Amino acid sequence: MKIVVAKHMGFCGGVKRAVEMARSTAEQSSGPVFTWGPLIHNPQVVRQLEEAGVRVAGSPEELRGEAFIVSAYGVEGAVLEMARARGMRIVDATCPVVIRAHTLALKLVEEGYDVIAVGDHGHPEMVTLKEVLGDRVTVVHTLEEARQVKVGPRVGVISQTTQSQENFQRIVADLVVRAKEIKVINTLCPAITVRQVEANQLVQEVDALVVIGGHQSSNTTRLYEIGRANGIPTYHVEVADELKAEWFEDVEIVGVTSGASTPDWIIADVIARLQQISRRKELTQASS
Ligand code: SF4
Fold this sequence. Notes:
The protein has helices at about 15-30, 45-50, 75-85, 95-110, 125-135, 145-150, 165-175, 190-205, 220-230, 265-285, and strands at about 1-5, 35, 55, 65-70, 90, 115-120, 135-140, 155-160, 180-185, 210, 235, 255-260. It has a 4-stranded parallel β-sheet with strand order 1-12-10-11, sandwiched between helices. With about 290 residues, it is of the alpha/beta class. Iron/sulfur cluster (SF4) binds next to helix 1, helix 4 and helix 8.
């Protein structure tokens, strides 16, 4: 079985920066260091960070310590205020690409546009945007939702940084014909777009696709959806142990890609396991 690996895998710049900031904050602190919920959507990395002293607060009662790390996608204002009020040092690991998207959305509002943000309801990036812009921004996740929105005379459109290009394009195409004036700003993250473009190319040349990343990671899920939409068997795994040899019985070429919060060591483990499955397959075929 041939294994074809995507060029861009592993941590994106924003995740790498957030993980490094969290680690060095823990190293430099004598008291507890917290994030609000997991720092990134990868449980194995979050576990490693916990071992290095970065704790995950899941409730206001738990949020007491020396430092508070804002995740790459930001954090709700109320949580930030709570950490400040409790005397915690704030370490802002918000990704510059997310800050750019929010700044551009704010500029659109200042220019008099009603903003439509294509994103996932409840995603921290959209929650924090809504906090800042209030009623001037409407979050839509699907084309159906976008069609329900009453369009004002001037519409500005941005996207959550980790949305799929296709979804953004579909919604923009619908709004373009309904709005009198429209200003579209591409705020998709290049690190995400390149992974999606590569996944779309990969699915043309393989019989099956393995997508590596946290089960809660939205950008990993989008890569999985690309495989599914192209009608090839697609498997979303967090770690190598989830791979099953029988998935690859009739597969000649398997593609591998990963989300932007998947560490290199998990990718290496998954590839090693696929190579092992491939060798066993060859041995079985040779002896039969
Ligand atoms: S995917 Fe893009 S926006 Fe998200 S953390 Fe990485 S670099 Fe930043």
